[in-house]
Each structure stands twice: as structure tokens, then as C-alpha cells.
Amino acid sequence: MATKANPAPSVWARQQREAEQPALNRAAIVREAIAVLDADGIDALSMRKLGARLNAGATSLYRHVATKDELMELAVDEVFGESTVPPADSPDWREAVAEAAESFRATALRHPWLASVLGQAGLAYLGPNLKAYSERVAALFVTAGFPEPERAIETVITYVIGMSTTETAWLTTVARSGQTEAEFIEGLIPAAQEAAADTEHLSAAYAAAIGVDPVALRNEKFTYGLNVILDGLALRLPDPR
């Protein structure tokens, strides 16, 4: 007798079961999981703890989400629904791509766990929100005339993920201190200056950081790097002549 092939190991390859408890459904489970992830991080999320928060046993959750890995796929896709992309016929492809990148970054900063799990969350890219985001970004590059739009997309997205991972790690450290970002930096700079007293460029950088709005500085760094990437990608466009 023929053996039925196993589906791909992804929540998107499985048919969703009908809800047995109207108050407990996949959407409610994912919303609560995101709340846990945002507040306490990945290590705090477990099916048992999530069931307790939803006043349901872990067994009830497994009727809707088979594994924690599937839950992470769903959570990733859900928060990606917050990211926006301008229409493909936007007059300036650079501005449109920059807006899409900024929106992705803003989503990652609202959900500090997101950037670090994108490459680990199973087949999250098959989710409807992530597919829609990717398709809209692809349309920007195709409409702009890039000969290899998928490579351009990968370049921009990799930059955003890398910067967001570093940024959220920093902000998590600040949050654990119980201080504001400005307070944390103010207390850190004297020790950093002392440690870098025998250097030229680091000393100057630490001195320049005194009194600077840290949010504005992070925004400036992100924009600078993004513009460098867009400058390079622009060179890949065919000469209109």
C-alpha cells in the first residue's frame, strides 16, 4: 500500500482544523504569543505557559498549532502585516524602497525578537503577509528596471535585518538597565572614554556622542547605510541611453 507523503514541515502546508472552542482559535493564540515575545523574548515562550495565559491546556493549543516552531512561523507572518510598501508605480524607486526598508525596521524595533528569528522560523516566507511584502518590494525593483531584482531585494533586506538585529540587541540591554537610552549612554561614556584614551578615532567618536539624541543618531546611522546601498544598486540599472 502506498505511503502518504509527509507535507512540508510548515504550518502553511497543513490544513487548519475547525475550532472546537470558539474563544480559542489560531488568531487568539498567535496574538497572545506575540504579546509574550514582545514583553519577555523567545525564551519565555512555551506552549504550556501560553496555554495558562489563555486559560487552556497545552493540548488544546496543539489542536490549532502543532509545534512551537509553527507558532513562530505564524507570529513572524502576523507582525509582518504591519510593514508597508509603496505602490510599484511610485515616481522615485529609491524613496519607495527606502520607505519599505524603514517600515520593516520599525516593525523589527516594535518586536525585538523578529530580526533574530527570520532565518530560523521554518518556512515563514510562505505566510501571506510575508509573501505580500516580498511581492510588493519585488515589484518596486522590477518596475525600476533592475536586471536582477531578486538580488537587489536580498541586498536591502539583509541590510535591514543586520542593522535591526544589532539595534534591538542594544535596546534590550538598555531596557534591562531600567534606564532610558540617554541615561544609559551618559553613564557609559566616561568608562568608554577612559578605555579609549589611547586611541584617536574612538576617542573622537565617544566625545562626539556626548549630548546627542540617541534615537536620532540611530536613525541617522541606518539612513546613511541604506543610502550607500541604494547608491550602489543604482549603478546596476541599465543606462537609459
Overall spatial form: flat
Give the overall pLDDT as a whole number.
87
* Class based on secondary structure composition and strand pairing: mainly alpha
Number of strands: 0
Helix count, per DSSP?
A: 11
Q: Point out poorly predicted stretches.
A: none
Largest sheet: none
User: N-to-C SSE series?
Assistant: HHHHHHHHHHH
Question: What do these coordinates show?
Answer:
This protein is mainly α. It has eleven helices and no strands. The N and C termini lie far apart (64 Å).
Describe what is shown at a glance:
With 241 residues, the protein is mainly alpha-helical.
Tag the structure with descriptive keywords.
241 residues, mainly alpha, 63% helix
Ordered list of secondary-structure elements with their pairings:
Layout: H1 26-40, H2 47-53, H3 58-62, H4 68-80, H5 93-110, H6 114-117, H7 128-144, H8 149-177, H9 181-195, H10 201-209, H11 214-234
